[in-house]
Fold:
Amino acid sequence: MNKTDKIYVAGHRGLVGSAIVRSLQEKGYTNIVGRTHKELDLTNQADVNRFFEEEKPDIVVLAAAKVGGINANNTKPAEFAYENMQVQCNVIKCCHDFKVKKLLFLGSTCIYPRMAPQPIPEDALLTGPLEETNEAYAIAKIAGLEMCKFFKRQYGDDFISCMPTNLYGPHDNYNLQDSHVLPAMIRKFHEAKEKGEATVELWGTGSPLREFLYVDDMADACVFLLENYSGEQHVNIGTGKEVTIKELAETVRKTVGFEGEIRWNPEMPDGTPRKLTKVDKLHELGWHHKVELEEGVKLAYEWFKENIGCARMEGR
Structure:
């Protein structure tokens, strides 16, 4: 990669894409292109073709996706499957047709089998049944990841993929109808504290184990891979560390300063029992995370408080 390469970040306003833009800028990349959904509908093949023909990007980061937590995945599986596959097919094919120098496709660790070995190695993909609560999203992401592999294998395209673990940080989604667990906790504890409420209800039993990565660390790893990796196999991006959801809740509660009681609702789903990535491959390449969970939660909460008026909070 050259500092003057034109880099198109699809999804540049989201949690992942905005962090990648920040990381690229910090490393001296000056020619970064982004389009909002209103400006470019990535599900529209003709529009995507027209964009690539006009802009001719050298590098593409595909961070645009329809994402959400357990509730969103359970209630809108057709949308998750269709929209994500449309976006992926359009962008990946254009990267090939317009001879993009390098493509980075972002998957998600939720596409691994529900009962994958722990920590989860990269070669666990497609070795068992998926977690039902995010099956549609997982199938779409698997299709995109495999498509990158096939284009590399058949045409020699420099298309690489990475598999970030659970992410959080600036520009996260705080809509309680479709947010992920950590931002949902931040909002619930904050609002309960502001209202003087005595309890906060959280879904499930609190027993599942999860790994969390601050989004700016993820972005740093993505740029590192763009600069240093061209292998066919996808690469896990994570910390290699895990906590229970109960431990996470205590960390968030302490950070926010909520002094009331947490009530767990075991009638609601827990999701996958455990999900920890094996990050040996990334470590061997020379990258390690920097932000630990307690520090990251503090950073995320500070951003939330400072941006509460413009954060994604639909369904207040």
